[in-house]
Write a structure and sequence with these properties.
With 310 residues, this protein is an alpha/beta fold. The protein has a single domain (3-309), classed as Zn peptidases (Aminopeptidase, 3-Layer(aba) Sandwich), CATH 3.40.630. The protein is built from ten helices and ten strands. This is Peptidase.
Length: 310
């Protein structure tokens, strides 16, 4: 079954050219406001953190400034934690979960860690509720040298500026029903390949790094999130989204090889969260809470198993 049976842009077995990318871009619409929903929450943190603009997207540099949130009184003797959200702009709880953690919980953990966060890497995607940027590029497959994705390039430069080594990077994502109904068919159409239907996992899971799994750490995140929402079960093939389940709710990707945000540092501990917001049993706030639980569970693990042994 080909994508083009379902997707209205492009011709069967033919990758998109510029005209198809333009047609796709024209099909998008603004559905919510980054300036009204996200930026005020960032600015509200200015009394607790250093807020810096690390770039602005050329699509509309006034509308889409990019902000980082950094610990005041940065202490090079402390380990550094990187939090990213909204790499896929449509994944709402990644953005608001990161901001909720910073507003409500980071003060407790700053005695142990420096924090730097980029809570909304893709504000155009946030506004249009899209996985891609306006050029039909996925920022979360674009973290590599000389990347054409502005969102990815700016974040890579921000990471290069971080003093010292990042101990942990947590990248906050969602897996939604629209991944299967819209984004995967669009991807197949864009690349001129056949669309193979898949399944959307019902629940939270994490993606660790094939090269550095840290399964005890991943399990600590899962255990923390269990208190907030349900964990995705393995399918009949013992997989989640086509990857083997290596521990409850945990799969692995080769982060750097795939150009994923989770591979932008050489951190010792890294995880990508995947919240499931389309469950009839959860609310938007519970999705945000699940992201917060993932961050706090990860940090509690580091305090218990890393800092106390140093």
């Amino acid at each position: 079954m080909s994508t083009q049976s379902h997707y209205p842009i492009g011709q069967p077995n033919t990758p998109w050219g510029e005209s198809e990318r333009l047609a796709w871009r024209k099909s998008t619409t603004i559905k919510r406001s980054y300036q009204e929903e996200v930026v005020p929450k960032i600015q509200k943190l200015a009394n607790q953190f250093i807020i810096e603009q690390y770039g602005a997207l050329s699509y509309d540099s006034t509308r889409y400034p990019l902000f980082s949130i950094k610990s005041q009184g940065w202490d090079n003797s402390k380990p550094t934690i990187l939090i990213t959200g909204g790499v896929h702009g449509y994944e709402t709880s990644g953005v608001h979960g990161a901001l909720q953690f910073l507003a409500e919980h980071a003060s407790h953990y700053q005695q142990y860690f420096n924090f730097i966060a980029a809570p909304c890497v893709s504000p155009w995607g946030y506004e249009t509720i899209n996985r891609w940027n306006p050029n039909a590029l996925d920022p979360n497959r674009s973290f590599y040298a000389n990347t054409p994705a502005e969102e990815s390039a700016y974040l890579l430069k921000l990471v290069e500026s971080i003093p010292g080594k990042v101990l942990m990077h947590i990248d906050l994502h969602e897996t939604t029903d629209t991944d299967e109904s819209e984004f995967r068919p669009a991807l197949a159409a864009r690349d001129g390949i056949a669309y193979q239907p898949g399944e959307i996992p019902d629940g939270f899971y994490t993606v660790g790094d094939t090269q550095n799994p840290q399964l005890d750490f991943q399990t600590a995140v899962i255990d923390a999130v269990k208190q907030v929402t349900h964990i995705a079960p393995a399918d009949d093939n013992n997989e989640i989204i086509g990857s083997p389940v290596v521990a409850e709710g945990v799969i692995l990707y080769d982060m750097k090889a795939l150009g994923l945000c989770g591979g932008i540092t050489d951190c010792e501990f890294g995880t990508t969260t995947e919240v499931y917001p389309d469950s009839p049993t959860v609310t938007a706030q519970e999705c945000n809470n699940a992201q917060v639980a993932a961050v706090t569970g990860a940090l509690n693990y580091l305090i218990e198993h890393q800092l106390k042994t140093r």
